[in-house]
Here is the input.
Amino acid sequence: MKIIKISAIGSTNDYLKKQAKIIPLEDETVVQTLHQTQGKGQMGATWHFDIGNSLAFSIFKQTNELPISKQFWVNFAVSIGVKKGLDLLGIPKVSIKWPNDILADGKKVCGILVENQFQKGHIEHSIIGIGINVNNASFPEFPQASSLLLSTGIHFSLDEVFDKVLQAVLSELQLVKATNAEAYKKQYESYLYKIGIVSTFEDIERKMFYGTIQGVSNNGMLLVKLQDTTVKEYRLKEIKMLY
Ligand code: BTN
Here is the structure.
């Protein structure tokens, strides 16, 4: 593992992406910044960074020619790793909101952005970006966001959170190819937010409906039991859970 610390950068994911095009990067190259100025979120969103309180880092991971059909395994592993790292730090009620938002007591404390480089039917490498709200004191514009400080009342060392979460994520990533797929999926599902509980969703046409999360399919789609008892599979952009 190689850790690069940068005082300020637009996006740690973009930094690794550019570097990977210029030079062959060592597996598990990690870049962390003290100030991320143009953080990227999922689906083109921006990711807010609060200097001194937020943590932003990205991992370059060789995926040993993981087939594209298994690309969701990287997301499983990273989400499980962050969950385990936060458990070790004593954060209460950590869960995974499909596909990979990490919640503490129902509020988002960490966002994950996985960007894969594909080649001839397999994943060449993944760039895994992790943003954690550590000591942020408030989120006036984001009522569903929280921080480790707000969920525990404890002020955390950014370095300690970085070390614990990074180690946990790297350990999980090492299992991606070796693990029994069904058992690993079950583990991910056991951490899923609101699994088995009737919840409110919005479909792609912004129509509200009730459903119950049953789990995920082998390719990472969300399985939701509808009111007529049929189970439907949803892709990322097709469904939104209303908290
Ligand atoms: C989300 O929308 O939930 C994903 C947020 C991912 C943010 C992290 S911070 C480190 C890395 N660099 C980025 O530009 N984004 C990710």
Notes: The chain has a mean pLDDT of 95. The CA atoms of residues 133 and 147 lie 5 Å apart. The radius of gyration is 18 Å.
